[in-house]
Amino acid sequence: MNDTICAISTSQGVGAIAIIRISGEEAISIVNSIFKGSDLSKVNSHTINYGHILDKDEIIDEVLVSVMKSPRTFTKEDIVEINTHGGIAPTNRVLELLLEKGCRLAEPGEFTKRAFLNGRIDLLEAEAIMDMIEAKTETQRKMATNQIEGKTSTLINELRDDMIQIISNINVNIDYPEYDDVDIITNDILIPKINNLKEKIKKILKESENGKIIKNGINTSIIGKPNVGKSSLLNTLLQEDKAIVTNIAGTTRDIVEGQISINGILLNMIDTAGIRETEDIIEAKGVEKSLKIMEESDLILFMLNNNEEITKESLDLIKKISNKKYLILINKMDLEKKLDIKELNIEKDKIIELSIINNQGIDELKEKIQKLFNLNELETKDPTYLSNARSISILKRCLKRIEDIEKSIENQMPIDMIELDIKNIWEELGKINGSSYEEELLDEMFSRFCLGK
Questions:
Q1: What is the tally of structural domains in the chain?
Q2: Is pLDDT at 141 greater than 90 in this prediction?
């Protein structure tokens, strides 16, 4: 990290301005060598300076240059940001000049990686920066903001603090048994402490399910026989003609996707091919994909036709989804009733009657989805959750190890052996916020960031 890096931090294309970011020991001197205006080595930190970028005697662009001196910067290094006109040609020309003068093109996410390695942010806060960039809803923005501000990190730090107190107390017992003013850690004392840790981890994991919903949305598949109105429902919810709609069975042969927002939570809608026995090879592939998507969905909207009798095939599919979150949508209520609801043998609360052509039942559908996933509650809460699969996976491993410690205590395992297990969990928790990390993890994680961030 001794070199100076640079990258375009704004989306490339035609725009009012583009920003080129430079960070490192030589950031100010390199930019100063191509800048005509104030001497950047002498200006105050956190100032904006007007001038021109020059290539020898040729003016490349009229610019504003922001100078931010270490350590009060994002990377804790000297940072310079050049605001150029937003065309592709002037932006690239300025970038080329910086590379010629000794800068290195930054890798994806390298500015944020330097901020982490220099102690400006922890790993959870780094991940939240990417979440903020990708946020599509207000709820996603709020959750990312809380994580950037360190509220989520506090949850993990409190867990680690609780564990370090237990570890320290055990160590004092082992190394200095003559101390009278320190509690002697016995199994009877240790059991409630371990149980308290377990309950805290379980609470964080439970609430993190909400975090996953906020961050990733609810994967929602629309399932049913051909011609029950799946594509019409998708188009109505999206308020656009996304899927082709005809009265010919089997029109949809592949998945059609779109997104809607309900109370700040994204529904990743997937219209699937109608499920039926077919000899058409292409349609059969679509049916196979529909069944796979159904298994992977967070929510299944199973559509039936009010104008047709229920088939054994549909009843079998309803049984198949009974262990998942689902709603039964009976469409075409404007037509003659032939479907007997009693045959479905499910609670009335899961059934919604629709007439998509008349826009009947759409509001009720949205309300039922809100209720099914407690979306009203999520909207009113201040979202402070773990939302990253990596962090949640680590926490689940820690919970399993805590449960193993409980068994060890029951089996009268020596206290010094239990202390080692607790310490291993403490170190594992450190991987969540980056108190301990592997270089390969950082490389993989920051490679997903955009260039210039």
A1: 2
A2: no
Q: Around 92, how many Cα atoms within 13 Å sit in the side-chain half-sphere?
A: 6
Q: Which residues contact 41 (CB under 8 A, 6 or more apart)?
A: 28, 29, 32
442 assigned to some structural domain: no
Domain that holds residue 284: 135-434
Same domain flag for 159 and 11: no
Scored b (16 or more CB within 10 A) or e, 74-104 reads bbbbbbbbbbbbbeeebbebbbebbeebebe
Distance of CA 94 to the CA centre of its chain: 34
C-alpha span between 229 and 331 (Å, rounded): 7
| Proportion of the chain above pLDDT 90, given as a percent | 28
pTM for the full predicted model = 0.69
Q: What is the mean pLDDT of the chain?
A: 83
How confident is the model over 32-50, as a mean pLDDT? Answer: 96
Tell me the mean pLDDT in the region 120-145: 85
Both 167 and 91 in a single domain? no
312-341 confidence digits (pLDDT tens): 888 888 888 888 899 999 989 888 888 888
| CATH number for 298 | 3.40.50.300
Residue 374 φ/ψ region, left for φ over 0, alpha for ψ in the -120 to 50 degree band, beta for the rest: left
* Residue 188 maps to a domain: yes
Evaluate the omega torsion of the peptide bond into residue 71 and state whether it is cis, within 30 degrees of 0. Answer: yes
For residue 22, the one-letter residue type is I
